[in-house]
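Thread: Newbie trying to understand structure tokens

Hi all, I'm a second-year student working on a class project, and my supervisor (Dr. K.) asked me to get a predicted structure for one chain before our next meeting. I've only ever worked with sequences, so writing a 3D structure as a token string is new to me. If someone could post the tokens and maybe explain what I'm looking at, I'd be very grateful. Here's the chain:
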Amino acid sequence: MCQRSIKLINIIQKRSHKNECKQKHIELADVQIDVKLKLSALWVAVMFLYVYGDILSFFRPGHIEEIIAGKMGPFPVTQVGLLTAAILMAIPSVLVFLSLALKPKVNRWTNIILGVLYTMVNISNLIGESWAYYITFGIVEIVLTLLIVWSAWQWPKQIT
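---
Reply by user tm_fold:
Sure, no problem. This is what the structure looks like when written as tokens:
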């Protein structure tokens, strides 16, 4: 009788221990990402989309011939046109670094203003566009630049 009681107590204890283990729930930690890192990563993503969109455009029938003929989209290739394109691409490239390096107040307003500007640029790039891949890239670019504006607008405040 005593051995049966001991076995029964052991079984009950084991079941109780299993239930305790099942009740414990381990969750993954949700690490807060600094707004500067978010902004930098968003500009990197925007730049990748710009590059991939341009690379895929080379596969559009007649596109390379247009380039050889001196056309950049609907515009003739000129020094001013290429300089404008270079500046438009240099700004987001530099913002990858500046988003990490600038002081918060300047950083916030720089990202809000340029995020809005590049949202407008991305919208204008879609006017008259009919290729699905380019529209897809454009929509994602718009979402990302709006996320840049939103993230900068929501910059965490601290009491000094």
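A couple of things are worth pointing out once you decode it. The chain has a mean pLDDT of 91. The helical segments are 2-23, 35-57, 63-68, 79-101, 104-126, 132-153. Feel free to ask follow-ups in this thread.
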